[in-house]
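Researcher: Last one for today. Full complex below.
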Amino acid sequence: MTAIPATRRRGSLTKAEGRQALGFASPALVGLALFTVVPVVLSIVMSFFDWPTFGDRAFNGGANYARLFANGEFAEALRNTLVFTILYVPVSIVLSLLLALGLGPRIRGRGALRVLYFIPVVTPMVANVLVWKMLLQPQGLFNGLAQTWFGVQLPNFLADPAWAMIMVVVMSVWQGLGYNMLIFSAALEQLPEAVIEAARIDGARGLRMTWSVVVPMISPSIFFATIMTMITSLQVFVQPQLLTGGGPGTATQPLVMWIYNQGFKFQDLGLAAAGAWILFALIIIVTGVQFAAQKKWVHYEH
Amino acid sequence: MSTELLVAETSTSALLTGDAASSRRSRRRPGGAPQTAGGRIRLAIRHVVMYAAALIFMIPLIYAFFSALKPNGEMFSMPPSLFGSEIKWSNFAEVFEYGPFWTYIGNSLLVAVLGTLVVLVVSTTAGYAFGRLRWKGRDLVFVAFLATLMVPAEVLVIPMFQVMQWFQWVNTYQALILPFAFGAFGTFLMRQFFRGIPFELEEAARVDGAGPVRTFLRIILPLSKSAVAVLAVFTFLSFWNSYLWPLIVTVDYDTLGTLPIGLATFSGLTGTRWDLQMAAAIISMIPTTLLVIILQKHLVKGIAMAGLGGR
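Model: Here's the assembly. Have a good evening.
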């Protein structure tokens, strides 16, 4: 990183530059103030008010936060979000790492294969969900094949509470796999060859090379991917919203769907804002714990 | 969070076009091609496994495509088959008769293009101010700027909707475009890239009497085409695919609905017409898939730039 030497450009020139810098930065600063800072402050305020979409507002102390946990549905949404995250993150990270390792430099056509895995990442999620909804119908492809080939009747995936959550996870893994795979591929391409060569001379081969040399060396990327994947999975919304509608009952309703429903179906923006802050706190805590734990397994070259 | 997270790393641009990179690599790395018979067999097995995995991965999309060509009555026939009794290309045309699908596509295009333009202008100018110009409090403001990245969109949508009501912007295009066009990410990305450009280039222009505006337009921007392209692609995709915010801020989906909203309402409208739903899903996948294929190199560069922050 190039730093600007402190001795360069002083005095009136710097002042002029400061004015011009303000000109360059002001669209971003105004936009961010208007569309991020104001909403954040407003959101804190709202969370302490009875705040219907239309009509009178009234300060209610911390009543919204108390209401969150008095109502079992919020706790259930919290649990669903955690269950989704615990199931989704490890499966997604492991599978995409295996794919990246498998699509090594000696595989022909790996460029095309990588593009292929990336298609669902950029496709509108609604389209992906529609496809999976069709496959998972009781008469859909999966159950159809199971019956025709093995005479086995599969469960009704989207109507059974346990299976519905598993299918939300499966569909999410499928659609998000390509992103982390590309992150890992990029990291693998940049491995210093001297180290690999040294390990090879020391007799490291195959699995041992992968597990003891390659994986530790790309552990910063694994760490980064895990954090980002975990943050996005705590914010999961579209997949359950469209695949199961949060159902059956509220078995797959995650926090964001609960927030959406409170705010825009039941018009209780104050309660929804309070729920959103609990979600934010959860994200901060989980990310913080991960950063604290990284010393144990992430290796940086310094 | 470190402000020096991102390094403009461009050496991975050949990642997706594996062949060029791998031939270069195998020349450099001894043992790139297997020497022994056992090695060749293992490599062959690896090919089989990787291609089988790719095929399994693609089954949902392949089956969806063929389902879009079936008559609706044969959608769920037993045993399942790839082809119906006839190949109905007309399903794809019928999608456009069933709902205002062209409107959805037009809206998505308008919102994504305008949104991308706003993001590019805002991010490059602010990135220049934070990355190349010296001013009091710059680093402090930048850290505050970055801190806003921590706030998830879900926390913002509730108050943002309230702000839109105050502006009387609910159910307007500007509400679809502006609120999420000022995020700190683009500025961050551009700043990191700009800082990698040698200062001597700019110094020379300054000595010749060019001010910041000229150096920005004539030197910095032209040198940053690839970074701008990367930001453009990712911004376009995120606008094109966004669902939660359009769902909230638009009311009249028939005139203001974007493609994801249209697709979701469409599936509600058509209920049992799975043939049309699949055709609609496939249609909506075409533009993004083409974009990925055409811009594959830039996409990987973008992931290397934006995604490898942990390194």
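The first strand of chain A starts at residue 49 and ends at 50. The first helix of chain A runs from residue 12 to 46.
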